[in-house]
Design brief:
With about 500 residues, this protein is of the alpha/beta class. The protein has two domains: about 1-255, Rossmann fold; about 265-270 and about 325-495, P-loop containing nucleotide triphosphate hydrolases (Rossmann fold, 3-Layer(aba) Sandwich). It is about 40% helix and about 20% strand. It contains 20 helices and 17 strands. The strands form four sheets. It has a seven-stranded parallel beta sheet, sandwiched between helices. A six-stranded parallel beta sheet has the order 10-17-16-13-15-14, sandwiched between helices. The longest helix has 18 residues, at about 275-290. The radius of gyration is 24 Å and the shape is globular.
């Protein structure tokens, strides 16, 4: 079996070794024109999609791939997932769309369509589908090449009337192969499935339009508001039938059924700076180098500069003796966090270092999922609130699904083992805080996680990380099980503070 797997890896350029459930998915999906990866967060749907793409390329069935994902996550494909999973022995090029592309990004897009045959991968965010310039690029790409088109977090096209949904469905008609991926394809109602399936293939579920699909699986009630009459969904029916239909074109797996997952699964999701944030980070980096200079440098001096850079990476500025000020632009880190929570099964813990971020998170989660969905555990949380937070989060019947906490506050004396997903919005510089906060969820008795005789349950840990910044470098220090002060040497402080390309 190991010999067969190594043969597949070598032949199709798989850099990562797939788990058994990913191999099962590969054999089911590999030659299908249309297919869905409905796989829980942390079960490896990105690798499953890339395995399929490289197979189709090597077998000369495609020349290119288009990956569409939400704005907060699409860069993780080009910067993290593809380099991690596809071997350099397989010829490929990758370029990501950007509405404000830098010189090197424009060059990468231009180079994508030049040179000898290779797997050409275009990565773009779904929000760009309202841009004529972006649409022209994708339209020309899918017409020019034999493409596999994959929409990650496909619930972004769940609304049948949205422009981007219509655009995605029309673009998909030109793709030779179509794939969609989501850990939770029906976040609000079964109606979400209709547009998703239409991208894969018209009439895939056997209904000519959205309204006939809705009438089949939804219980409708006539309503009247003044002189206006309308129908409202008040319930659902025949869900077992719908699930049976889904399994005709999808690989569906829950985390608890992936019996080969390790006890701890780690994932890094890349987040990007906005223009204002990037400018502030660069300015602070230069100030730090001027301040430290070439003289005697202490660990405390370096850590002071790291904190300032880390705050900028976290999305805000902290002027001396003044309140924190967020950047006046979309917050990619916060947007990505909300997208991850939408896809995550079960309960989630979100760890964040800064009080300002924690309050942002509580407000954003409350707005998106409802005030009853989130509790908090940090310095401002009263003793009564802490008691309620512990009990409500651990109660499987409670509406509370999300816990937002500071590692320094929540790391001791708490059991949050009902969480199957743990997200680090950012990390602090304390190795003990990281290790202890991880163990709040990774304890016996976890709900919905993998259980093996004599082993701990499986928990997914996700780090949001701005690649090449101090954010990334602190994470590397922690994952090497070192204390930051041990890494801050005169010979190392430049590496820690410098922003890499």
């Amino acid at each position: 079996m190991e010999t067969d797997l190594q043969f597949l890896k070598n032949k199709y350029g798989w850099l990562s070794t797939p788990y058994q459930h990913q191999l099962d998915c590969f054999y089911i999906a590999k030659d299908r024109r249309s297919f869905a990866y409905f796989m829980d967060l942390g079960t490896g749907k990105s690798l499953a999609g890339l395995m399929n793409a490289t197979y189709l390329y090597v077998e000369n069935k495609i020349d290119a791939m288009v990956i569409v994902a939400p704005a907060g996550m699409y860069r993780s494909w080009s910067d993290v997932e593809i380099p991690k999973h596809i071997s350099k022995d397989l010829p490929y090029k990758v370029a990501a769309w950007s509405s404000s592309a830098k010189k090197e990004e424009k060059k990468a897009l231009k180079d994508l369509e030049t040179g000898e045959r290779c797997l050409r991968i275009l990565v773009i965010n779904i929000e760009a589908f309202v841009s004529d310039r972006a649409l022209e690029l994708v339209f020309d790409f899918v017409r020019k090449y034999r493409c596999l088109m994959l929409i990650d977090e496909v619930t972004t096209i769940k609304s049948p009337t949205a422009k981007r949904t219509k655009v995605a469905i029309n673009l998909g008609k030109f793709a030779h192969y179509r794939r969609i991926a989501s850990g939770n394809p029906m976040p609000q109602s079964p109606c979400d499935l209709y547009s998703e399936s239409e991208f894969l293939e018209h009439n895939l579920l056997g209904f000519g339009n959205f309204y006939s699909f809705r009438n089949r699986f939804c219980v409708m009630q006539d309503m009247k508001f003044g002189s206006h009459s309308f129908k409202r969904v008040v319930g659902y029916r025949d869900m077992d039938k719908l699930k049976q239909m889904i399994r005709q074109y999808a690989f569906v797996i829950k985390k608890e059924n992936c019996l080969d997952l390790p006890p701890k699964v780690y994932q890094v999701v890349d987040v990007k700076f906005g223009p204002e944030q990037a400018k502030a980070y660069e300015s602070m980096t230069q100030d730090a180098f001027v301040t430290l200079g070439e003289g005697q440098v202490t660990a405390q001096m370096v850590i002071t500069q790291l904190v300032r850079l880390h705050q900028i990476a976290a999305g805000f500025l902290k002027p001396d003796h003044l309140p924190e000020v967020p950047f006046n632009e979309p917050n990619s880190r916060l947007e990505t966090l909300i997208e991850l929570l939408e896809a995550a099964p079960g309960k989630c813990i979100v760890w964040s270092v800064y009080r300002f971020n924690i309050q942002q998170l509580i407000a954003a989660i409350s707005e998106r999922f409802g005030k009853d969905s989130v509790v908090h555990f940090y310095g401002d949380t009263t003793q009564d609130q802490r008691k309620y937070a512990r009990e409500a989060f651990q109660d499987p019947d409670s509406p509370v699904k999300y816990m937002v906490s500071n590692p320094a506050t929540g790391k001791f004396g708490n059991t949050f083992n009902k969480a199957t997903t743990v997200i680090y919005y950012n990390n602090n510089y304390n190795l003990e805080d990281r290790q202890q906060s991880e163990d709040r969820a990774h304890r016996l008795g976890s709900e919905g996680a993998v259980h093996k005789p004599g082993e701990d349950p499986s928990v997914l840990y996700i780090d949001l990380c701005a690649k090449g910044t101090v954010d990334d470098k602190i994470l590397k220090v922690l994952k090497n099980k070192k204390h930051l002060t041990d890494a801050v040497m005169v010979s190392n402080w430049r590496w820690l503070l410098a922003k890499e390309a």
